[in-house]
Amino acid sequence: MNIGTAAGKSGVTAKTIRYYESIGLIPRAARAENGYRHYTDVDIATLRFIQRARRLGFSVKDVGNLLELWRDRKRSSASVKTVAMNHIGEIEKRIGELDSIRRTLVDLTARCHGDERPECPILDDLSGDDGRAG
Q: 103 vs 114, which has greater pLDDT?
């Protein structure tokens, strides 16, 4: 099947498929006599795997590691779990950072009068001063 069909069946855009090929995440597709890329059902399964992993927030590097583990039928599930647990740790760190950002913004918006006055604690905080600039 050509790249358009592969994109439709996998849910990955043709541009992204070419990108994954260019970085070695997936092997370069075979070429048909007319020069067009030719994809197999195995390629589609691989692209779906990548798509699902990316939707779960795995980095391209981690997806590559997971693909290697997926293809290795002698792998230990402990290896896969380690990648997933590391990712959970990164997610929890980001959640903590986002929660801190949210608390700061909630505080700043609560302190902002939101009226016609020029004083604004939000802008003061962003500028790092006491509100005398600009």
A: 103
Q: What CATH number has the domain bearing residue 51?
A: 1.10.1660.10
3-state secondary structure of 105: helix
Under 8 Å CB-to-CB from 79, ≥6 apart: which residues? 69
**pLDDT class of 2 with cuts at 50, 70, 90:** very high
- Residues of the domain holding 117: 76-134
- For residue range 55-68, list pLDDT tens digits in order: 999 999 999 999 99
Select from 60, 84, 109 the last residue of a domain: 60
